[in-house]
Amino acid sequence: xxxxxxxxxxxxxxxxxxxxxxxxxxxxxxxxxxxxxxxxxxxxxxxxxxxxxxxxxxxxxxxxxxxxxxxxxxxxxxxxxxxxxxxxxxxxxxxxxxxxxxxxxxxxxxxxxxxxxxxxxxxxxxxxxxxxxxxxxxxxxxxxxxxxxxxxxxxxxxxxxxxxxxxxxxxxxxxxxxxxxxxxxxxxxxxxxxxxxxxxxxxxxxxxxxxxxxxxxxxxxxxxxxxxxxxxxxxxxxxxxxxxxxxxxxxxxxxxxxxxxxxxxxxxxxxxxxxxxxxxxxxxxxxxxxxxxxxxxxxxxxxxxxxxxxxxxxxxxxxxx
Length: 321
Ligand code: CP
What we know:
Layout: H1 23-40, E1 54-59, H2 65-76, E2 80-84, H3 97-105, E3 111-116, H4 121-128, E4 132-138, H5 144-158, E5 165-169, H6 176-187, E6 191-195, E7 211-213, H7 216-220, E8 225-228, H8 244-251, H9 255-258, E9 266-268, H10 281-284, H11 291-309
Parallel strand pairs: 1-2, 1-3, 3-4, 5-6, 5-8, 6-7, 8-9
Helix pairs in contact: 1-5, 1-11, 2-11, 3-4, 5-6, 5-11
The structure holds phosphoric acid mono(formamide)ester.
Binding site for L-aspartate: 93, 176, 230
Keywords: Pyrimidine biosynthesis, Transferase
EC number: 2.1.3.2
């Protein structure tokens, strides 16, 4: 069993969004996550940091990366992890989110990880339950651990975030990943651009501290990082793009469009990817892609977050003891 080093106390009981985090909160989580990467690369991956603690994963929306990495993260920290199967639960009989959460809360978990289609679901739960809550994605609102793992991937590849130019491209309008990344990258001093057809840009995007582009050639010019987003058809009501073929022609990342960015620009995608829609396979699997590194950093960041939230120096009410 590997014991973890002491870090400063993280000043939050829940992780509901990047908007609640200061630059030093973010750096603290990234520093903790760096240590978790080293642990995950050892043959002995298990620590005792969360031994005796109970983690419940409550996913109302499909997930491959986030749910499995939260489960692995909890297990590597020594917690007891339960994956609540929403599809075979009493949710199917009409039980509300709050009733389900209160039922689970009565079993005295220490941390609840929630993904839900409604913006604000995680914040609502945090007001009702007696344990820490982590937002694993709420509608088109926030996905804070995705932004943290993206930042960790960039920081490890480039040694810094400040003053890098990051182009976030695609369906910004429906993307919680874009929103959390814009908040986090701005907090750490990056120059953030968004690149999308005007139909896929949310109202008021210019007030989020980003430069807005509607062509890939201009938006990618000289970029250090190109972050592609999935076309989120499940959140679209009506047609936002004329056709997938047309979308790929103008906004899909291929070798020709990538030439506009720096020669060594990092290519990122949070997954799941639609190959041939927002990214060409040759780029997703190519030498500039750090998509698999993002997945690895996901486990480390989630270890760091849970460890920070459940710091034993805090009392059961979440205050510093
Ligand atoms: N990036 C992300 O949230 O992936 P999943 O939907 O597979 O969890």
